[in-house]
Amino acid sequence: MKDLESGDRRSDRAVNETTDELARSDDSLDLPDDEVEHGLLGGRSSRHADTGEHSFSSSRRLGCCASFLRGPEPPRKHRIEPFFKSFQTAPIRMVDRWLPTQKSKLIALAVFLALWASIFLTILDWSIVRPEVPGYGAPNRLSCGSRLWHNGTLCGINGDACRPFDTDGFAFRCPAGCLGELILEPYTVGDQEVNYKSLVIGGASETDPESSYRGDSFICGAALHAGVISNAVGGCSILRRTGEKNSFGSVKQNGISSFSFDSYFPLSYTFEKGTAVCRDPRWPLFSLSVLFTAVISLCTTSPAAFYMSIWFISWFQVALVSDPPFSSDYLEVVSTAMGRFLPAAFVGWAIYRFSVRDTLTGLTAQWEKTILWLGPFWVGALNTDTFDKIPISRLTPHDIKQQPGAIPALIIIVGVIVTTVVTQAYVIWTEGKLPHYLVIYGVMAGSLVVMIVIPQLNLRIHHYILSLLFLPGVAFQTRPCLIYQGLLVGFFVNGIARWGFDSILQTPAALLGDAQIGSLLPTIAAPILQPDGNGVSFSFTNLPQDITGIAVLVNDVLRSHLYLDASSSSANGSSTDAIEERDGRDATTPDTLNVDWARLHQGLPEYFRFSYIKTSSLGGLWYEDFTKAGVLKADGEWVDMPPGPSR
Fold it and tell me: Membrane-crossing residues (predicted)?
């Protein structure tokens, strides 16, 4: 064997020596200049040699780049080593001692979940279904933004669609947290524009407890302002309509500053404190759910058992109590929650399969899992009480531009996201998976670009979609990934339980809501005032060909539709003939509409706004933007309308 090995080595040396000699003889060739230029026997020219060197250099750079993207060799698999391992694994050892078999553990988990459901449903029934106000029965369920009077156009001519104005009261209940309910689009009160404020107009005070709230105020906001309910636990009260009032003062109390209005409005109301005990159960039930999920987190090592249990408890906590979709009938809330549960659970399984399982498998740091994963999960699941406080209502250019504090908040959010992306990219790189993830996120980015360029539709990134975009990138067992993943899964649960699977592509009308649409405003000639100051005449000129008529708002109440076809025009339905269309479309000036207005109440100012009306081919009216308010003062003086639209 030694001879064979030595023979092999001798033969290898002979081959190497022969190769070296050939190389030296080749290197020592003394070629003529022209042969160097053109190559021996028609070989490559120097230009081709340079191109070859350049191609080799480019290939080498690409190879280096690809090698870098593949990450270190060997890849590093991240695993969390528990701090104070004996302490963190104590719950596991205790469970193994008391429940040594897999079957006993499954039975114990099922019993534990059944116990949670029993307590949860008992408290829910006691606090939501059973309370009644003596003399009124079960109170009407309201959302924080519920109103008796939605706006001037929806309530119809003279507000008739929002009647009754003056009748017996009714009992209602408000949820907790209504102090944070704001109006999210500009809303006009007389000549004031209200935006990103609590819509409360007028109200009682300690010095004037009988004062009323204007009918378009948030009912729950007004009840908070009046002190008849609590922001922490909500409550029940009795609302009494008090008909038309002539003045609504501004009062600051209980954390809300109400807006003033110094003229008449057909609907107002006051409150009586109810005797029923109505408390929003969200925080007691939230405490119950947090306690049970924390115990499950500490005592389970199975990622599937942990995730399934957390998903089940949190879904019904959010969908039924913490942030339910609004309906005046609570059974409808339950129906909606059950209808969304199965499709959400399917997506939840995909989240577990492709993200959560890799993060939690083999993790024995029970306390770290509970604090770093479960804690942020509940922060995301209670998005209404956490991230909704950030002054960005929607990620649209319109909202970001008009909402106070939105731009600094967006800069901070983008900074946090960029930092997170960079740190996660490093984690992915160290695990040798960066090329794979570049493909995944390249496909995602390409899909978003395609959706952006689709005409007549707007890309809308709901927070549940944001979760789905980022969850693949946090499927690693690091402590930051526990935080990110818990937060994102909580976002997803909240988004679907509250809003359902809203489309990623929405029409401009769906995004518009009650916002101004940027339409053409009526052209109004200088008004003609009556000598006694108790009336005014308006003329509308340069009427577009595609309009049907003009709508007239007085004190934020729709008082008339002026149609181009005089035979179909409508006038004020009040007993006083306050408004009169003189000639419809004037015969001598066909592009003009005229209207006369007689003051309804002496000694009070009146606020006038106008908009064009259009009709659809299937019927129904569409109101364009209204002008800002012009004011007929109490003394008969006229104040012109400022430029710009209102709604």
Answer: 106-124, 288-313, 333-352, 407-429, 435-454
173: nearest Cα among 213, 110, 112, 229: 229
Number of other CB atoms surrounding residue 391 within 10 Å: 17
Q: Which of 158, 271, 155 is nearest to 212 (CA)?
A: 271
Rounded mean pLDDT, 410-436: 93
Q: Which two tokens stand for residue 328?
A: 């005046």
- 299 in any annotated domain: yes
What is the C-alpha separation between 464 and 467, in angstroms, rounded? 5
Residue type, 120: F
Flag the least confident range among 144-158, 228-242, 415-429, 576-590.
Answer: 576-590
Distance CA 552, CA 566 (A): 15
Q: SS3 of 39, please? A: coil
How many angstroms separate the CA atoms of 326 and 309, rounded?
Answer: 26
C-alpha distances in Å from residue 335, one per residue of 144, 330, 339 = 21, 9, 6
The pLDDT value recorded for residue 209 is 65
Contact criterion met (CB below 8 Å) for 251 and 174: no
Query: 499 and 566: one domain?
Result: no
* 498 and 625 housed in the same domain: no
Q: Predicted confidence band at 491 (pLDDT cuts at 50, 70, 90)?
A: very high
Tokens at residue 570, please?
């409508």
Closest-CA residue to 267 (of 146, 144, 148):
148
Alpha-carbon distance 364 to 90, whole Å?
A: 10
Rg of the Cα trace of the chain? 36
What are the φ/ψ torsions at residue 219 (nearest 5 degrees)?
-65, -50
Task: Assign 574 to helix, strand or coil.
Answer: coil
Same domain, 113 and 163: no
User: In the block, which residue shows the tokens 């092999």?
Assistant: 8
CA atoms of 142 and 237, how far apart (whole Å):
11
Counted domains in the chain: 3
Which whole number is the average pLDDT over 124-133? 85
Within-domain flag for 518: no
Average pLDDT score over the chain:
85
Q: CA 539 to CA 593: how far, in whole Å?
A: 6
Mean pLDDT to the nearest integer, 182-189? 91
pLDDT at 611: 95
424 burial (CB, 10 Å; 0-12 / 13-18 / 19+) is buried
Cβ proximity of 221 and 198 under 8 Å: yes
- Confidence class for position 39, pLDDT limits 50, 70, 90: very low
Q: What percent of the chain stands above pLDDT 90?
A: 63
**Is residue 543 pLDDT above 60, yes or no?**
yes
Note whether 218 and 264 are within 8 A (CB): no
Domain final position from 251, 273, 295: 273
**pLDDT for position 583:** 41
- Given a contact cutoff of 8 angstroms between Cβ atoms, the answer to whether 495 and 388 are in contact is no
How buried is residue 520: exposed, middle or buried, by Cβ count under 10 Å (0-12/13-18/19+)?
middle
Structure tokens at 144: 């924080």
Which of 464, 485, 511 is a domain's end point? 511
When comparing pLDDT for 19 and 319, which is higher? 319
CATH of the domain at 234: 2.170.130.20
CA angle 96, 101, 106 (to 5 degrees): 95
Cβ–Cβ contacts within 10 Å for residue 94, how many?
12
